[in-house]
Amino acid sequence: MDQVRADVCVVGAGFAGLAAARRLDRAGREVVVVEARDRVGGRVWNRELPDGTVVSAGGTWLGKGQERMFQLCRELGLRVYPQYERGDHLLSLDGVHRRYRGGIPAAGPRTLMALGLALARLNLMARRLPADAPWRARSARSWDARTLGQWIADPRNVPTAEARTLLGSTMHLLFCADPAEVSLLGALTLARGGGGFGYYTDSRRTETHLVDGGAPELARRMAGQLGDRVRLSSPVERISDDGTGVTVVSDRLTVRARRVIVAAPPVLAGRIVFDPPLPAACGHLLRRVVPGAIIRVHTVYPEPFWREQDLSGQTLAPRSPVPLTIDQTPPSGRPGVLSSYAFSTGALRMGRLDPAERREIWLDALAERFGPRARHPAHYLETDWSAEQWSLGGMIGHFPPGTLTTYGPALRAPVGRIHWASTESATHMHGLMEGAVRSGERAAQETLTALSTGRLSVS
């Protein structure tokens, strides 16, 4: 077994871990990154199709206000290109296809008014949260005792049934979990980080650009700057803090460091054995911030034929087993790539099916919206994030009721020489790649300060 020494060991080579390591390296600190997977990127992942086409199967899009991600692309020589959005979007509801443009679905005026009022109420609540401590808000306990699903189901909040269907479907998509599992306070915390739910629910804000070569290429280039200090296929099993430093143990190497940044999703960080054991609040928090379920399918065609129909490729069908599609065609315009999704309970149901049956149902759903050509892709590629050993779901962990008000103060607080980073802990752009980068840079700065002062923090 290899034994390595460093100033800081970073556990996890997703965007949070790579951003932390990069900041530490630039500050002149010796850093080692230990990653369980055989690749970098974490919840971003490039997959190659038989014809050589590379598709981004995890975090893919950049959007407005995501300055750090755009800046990193510029620094590392990666081009970004705008999302294709010409043509009509489709809303498929109760067997009727409704075309529309812009960010407002083609629903009736009463439904649109109900949606607008509901989102305005939610955004007003979100603005009342302290960004770095939502559990301190005046109404935090009452909001944390309710689920997002309960709030949406109340006609006083969302007056029409169609508006409740659309808003509920959107929240299934956003959290990859049934809103009945998500704390209202936890949902508001995500909204607070982006300036309101409108940011996360409007593709014109969150999905404005793609990275040429895929977002995982950015992670690969970040790791490339660190060279052999990134150690892959080395899942961390144990982290010990003996009062003078930390020992990070995987099955392939042991790292002795002055500090450690755990930059893994909470559900995975909670599987590491810590010696001494973590404070109760921290340990309970890691076990409670769980990811939802998502299956993503890429269907590849010789060309993006939907554009011939003056369709953008973006569709929403709340009651379909495949509720969302979006055009992911490369900037050359060929081949045509359609990215489609099953979320939450729908993804769990689809995941239980025989693969051949699932494929038939999936392609039928696409054909219903785009016509018979959608049923015959040149390539069909599934990515079930719940089946990924080092993700266990996607794309972010959500906070169940009672979690933030009981354990929230442990979300970012260092424990001895252990620091934390993940998109779930970000105060800005929570849940996005941008949030992961910002959380990693925050943890790195926190660690640099601790190294320079010798300060020891205990939550």
Number of helices: 16
Contiguous uncertain segments of 5+ residues = none
The fourth-level CATH homologous superfamily of the largest domain is FAD/NAD(P)-binding domain
How many beta strands in the DSSP annotation?
A: 22
Distance between the termini: 33 Å
In CATH, the topology of the largest domain is named FAD/NAD(P)-binding domain
Domain Amine oxidase: 15-446
Protein name: Monoamine oxidase
Pfam family, one: Amino_oxidase
Keywords: Oxidoreductase
Task: Describe this protein with a few key phrases.
459 residues, alpha/beta, FAD/NAD(P)-binding domain, Polyamine Oxidase, Chain A, domain 2, Guanine Nucleotide Dissociation Inhibitor, domain 1, 3 domains, eight-stranded mixed sheet, seven-stranded mixed sheet, 35% helix
Question: Any chance you could write out the topology, listing elements then pairs?
Answer:
Layout: E1 2-11, H1 15-26, E2 31-34, E3 46-48, E4 54-56, E5 61-62, H2 67-75, E6 80-82, E7 88-93, E8 96-100, H3 109-127, H4 140-144, H5 148-153, H6 161-175, H7 184-194, H8 197-201, H9 203-206, E9 209-211, H10 215-226, E10 230-231, E11 236-241, E12 246-250, E13 253-262, H11 266-269, E14 273-275, H12 280-288, E15 290-291, E16 294-301, E17 311-316, E18 324-327, E19 336-343, H13 344-351, H14 355-370, E20 379-384, E21 397-398, H15 403-407, E22 418-420, H16 433-453
Parallel strand pairs: 1-2, 1-13, 2-10, 7-17, 11-14, 13-22
Antiparallel strand pairs: 3-4, 5-9, 6-9, 7-8, 11-12, 12-13, 15-21, 16-19, 16-20, 17-18, 18-19
Domain Amine oxidase: 15-446
InterPro entries: Amino_oxidase, FAD/NAD-bd_sf, Flavin_amine_oxidase, Flavin_MAO
Cofactor: FAD
